[in-house]
Amino acid sequence: MAVLPDPNAPTQLSPAPPLRQMAVLFADVAGSTKLYDALGDAQAKLLVDECLAVMFGVVKQYAGRVIKTIGDEVMCVLATADNGCLAAMDMQLRINALPAAGPIKRAIRVGFHFGPVIEENNDVFGDTVNLAARMAGLAKGGQIVTTAVTADRLSPTLRSSTRRIAALAVKGKGDEVEVCDVIWQAGDDVTMMTPSLAASARQVELDLQHGAIRLTLTPAHGGIVLGRDLACEMVVGGHMASRQHARIERRRDKFFLIDQSTNGTFVAFAGEPEIILRREELMLRAQGRIALGHSVDELTDEVIGFALRG
């Protein structure tokens, strides 16, 4: 005889799903309406899709995951606050390098926040998602906005590139949320550097080691070229290397590796998967290895070691 459930019995609630700490990042194409008005639907969509493809590639590069796209907006998650910040900066750099669409320069606005999220059905939910979306809503074209809580979680070098700009009331929050601007490029169109940022720009140095050759890039160096041409500042032999394979440029307190080769430039940060640059650039951080035209695990006598100091 079947036993019927007691309608008066208390409802058994499912256990709450576990929380996981992640960086949630939103990025969207600023001024896309102007693109559609100026160029028409077909051409504008191609240009927006190119921006989305760039952003997708950056998310993959930093071992993140795209959750969804909504029109010209990307929502993604990354494992750490640092990866969220680096992905945001790299997105801005790569979109900024795209050619202008007629009279219109393409730009994106980015917001991110690091904190606990609920993962369900390949999506994420919770207060962290809401705060990240709010940061993206505050950003203007060419700007990265995050919370002060997230900035405090960044490594010292990245944290030095943030500037607290406001304390804002956020819907659903009892207290105001402190907001930070992430400075990702140098130039007159960027927020003024604070004295602490200017000091760090004078102190950071990059050590490069190739065999018995050691080179230290100081604030006096504007940039160097790597390759097999004897005129390069760091000469690297090997048939996979181009004559002038890649450049390292200093921009304020950061060093960027720019590939300009046929076979690509391979980079492995300590403890992280290898990254391949193909006519792309990447901000160097902490320490790692660089190889010209082949994996850092091959032809190890041709590999360049690097480490940031300061």
Please, could you describe this protein's structure?
With 310 residues, the chain is of the alpha+beta class. The protein has 7 helices and 19 strands. It has helices at 32-39, 41-61, 81-96, 127-138, 148-153, 156-159, 195-203, and strands at residues 19-30, 65-70, 73-78, 107-120, 123-125, 144-147, 162-168, 177-182, 205-210, 213-217, 223-227, 234-235, 246-251, 254-259, 265-269, 275-277, 281-284, 287-292, 304-309. A hairpin with a 2-residue loop joins strand 4 and strand 5 (123-125). Strands 1, 2, 3, 4, 5, 6, 7 and 8 form an 8-stranded mixed beta sheet that branches. Strands 10-9-19-18-15-16 form a 6-stranded antiparallel beta sheet, with no helix packed on it.
User: What class do helices, strands and sheet pairing give?
Assistant: alpha+beta
How many strands, what sense, and barrel or not for the largest sheet? 8 strands, mixed
Evaluate the radius of gyration. Answer: 23 Å
What form results from the Cα inertia axes? Answer: globular
**Fraction in beta strands:** 35-45%
Average pLDDT works out at 85
Q: Extract low-pLDDT stretches.
A: 187-202
End-to-end Cα distance, whole Å, is 77 Å
The ordered string of helix (H) and strand (E) elements is EHHEEHEEHEHHEEHEEEEEEEEEEE
Number of helices: 7
**What is the helical fraction, as a range of percent?**
10-25%
Strand tally is: 19
